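G., the chain you wanted modeled:
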Amino acid sequence: TTHHAHVATLFNLRKIIADDKLKNDIASSEIYDTSVSQWNTTGSMTVPREYHTATLLNTGKVLVTGGMSNDAYQANCEIYDPSTGLWNAAKNMGIPRAFHTATLLNSGKVLVIGGSTFGTSAVTSSEIYDPSRDTWSPTANMSIPRSSHTATLLNSGKVLVTGDAASSEIYDPSTGQWDSPVIMAIARSNPTATQLQSGKVLVTGGVESANYLASSEIYDPSIDQWDTTTSMAIARRFHTAILLRSGKVLVTGGVGYSDFLASCEIYDPTTGRWKNVTSMTAERSSHTTTLLKSGKILATAGYGYTGYLDSSEIYDPSTGNWSPTENLSTTRASHTATMLNSGKVLVTGGERLGS
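Predicted structure as tokens:
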């Protein structure tokens, strides 16, 4: 329980820091160049933000939407052009939102779902961005409000939404409607969702009430049903999960009952089992993981025992080892990381201490 209090203290400290305005949202962006294993700064966003989204468009540009900026929800959107390294304004969303999701549809449009906005902890509303016309259009509402949820593009072109409720629901872009919700085993907040090579979706961890979860479940689109699978070794939230080339899923870091986590586990869909693998070199939560063209995984920044991190490291599935890479230009957590068509990785925004 001392441990428990310790983490509570850490989280309260973050809240105190936020309340004291010592925590600042970040406008800066940087790019990881895999060919030279180096970070380089690029153009800054016009609005500093965290809890935003970043989506690679079919044009190769990156759409950033919403988020929090200085404790205010944002409707502001901007687009990064890798060829110039600059940001251009995009049309504002219909409502300001953070903790939402943004999913590239097969049409090339972007579906933004849920999140939080002024005066409410979660919303049901969804809207669609058309990059060719720079317009937002409202679409059907979810059946229940969701925030810090997941959204996964299925092979059918539909979008599966989970988290923040004991049910999942699916958006059908061809009709612009939501299908009837499907009951899940557990109502989990802050889970991860990863599409497997089979087309099924693995959901892991998160929190239910105050209980941190090690449990996992799998959605099978062919029968529109959830099934539980084996649990992770460690309960965690604010972790990441990413599909490896092998078809296995790597889960990294997060926060457990009593500590920040460096531990990692791999799920094998063929056996339905988890295996502990080498830990990261640092405890990380609210970090990002990105699959590089080499098949290796880049873990970037986040928040750990020492506070906000500027370190990054790379996991090599062939050796099972993590190796530190060069540091970022600034500490950051709750940022985004997006693989560009060039194979480089664009990191945007987040929060850090100080100006």
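Residues 1-9, 12-20 have pLDDT under 50 and may be disordered.

Shout if anything looks off.
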